[in-house]
Task: inverse folding
């Protein structure tokens, strides 16, 4: 009997659909990791539905050599924290399903979102370490579009989540983002290592800009 190597599980904030480049950086990061260790990906999307009860739809397929679990969360209500609670249920079910195939030793969140951050409490219950790869410009650009009070609440919530000791290390994709996480959200420099984005072939230099 050959024991299956332990897996790392990547929880992707974005993941490309056929013909799309949304999430392509995450895909390229995962492909790079997969050269060195077994890895599987979970990608959860929330969709509004007209049925009276929520539904969780889980499909698994190989995508570019990576085993990907796509979870569609259909819910008639997208307020009051209901999607977050449903996401935690979905992640618990996913872990229960996957641990039957073999042990898991690491949870890797690729970009914190309202949904991927729900993987943290589930991983903590299972005693799994969590690492975070981050390339979202929301922390220092998008967040500024919020009204002042809402922005302050959002910053406090992000700071609290990032300070959780279960997140053993963070990998921003640029020195600039590392400085933002340190300055605006209190992440200690020794908790971070800059790991640059892996560029897919779809990205290439364009023509020179016009005057």
Result:
């Amino acid at each position: 009997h050959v024991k299956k190597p332990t897996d790392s599980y990547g929880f992707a904030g974005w993941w490309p659909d056929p013909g799309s480049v949304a999430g392509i950086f995450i895909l390229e990061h995962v492909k790079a990791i997969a050269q060195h260790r077994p890895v599987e990906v979970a990608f959860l999307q929330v969709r509004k539905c007209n049925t009276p009860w929520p539904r969780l739809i889980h499909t698994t397929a190989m995508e570019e050599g990576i085993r990907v679990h796509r979870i569609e969360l259909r819910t008639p209500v997208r307020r009051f924290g209901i999607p977050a609670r449903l996401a935690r249920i979905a992640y618990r079910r996913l872990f229960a399903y996957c641990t039957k195939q073999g042990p898991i030793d690491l949870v890797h969140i690729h970009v914190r979102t309202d949904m991927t951050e729900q993987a943290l409490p589930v991983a903590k219950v299972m005693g799994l370490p969590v690492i975070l790869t981050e390339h979202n410009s929301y922390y220092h650009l998008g967040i500024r579009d919020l009204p002042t009070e809402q922005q302050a609440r959002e910053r406090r919530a992000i700071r609290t989540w990032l300070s959780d000791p279960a997140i053993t290390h963070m990998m921003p994709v640029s020195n600039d983002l590392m400085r933002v996480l340190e300055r605006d959200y209190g992440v200690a420099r020794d908790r971070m290592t800059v790991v640059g984005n892996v560029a897919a072939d779809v990205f290439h230099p364009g023509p020179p800009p016009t005057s």
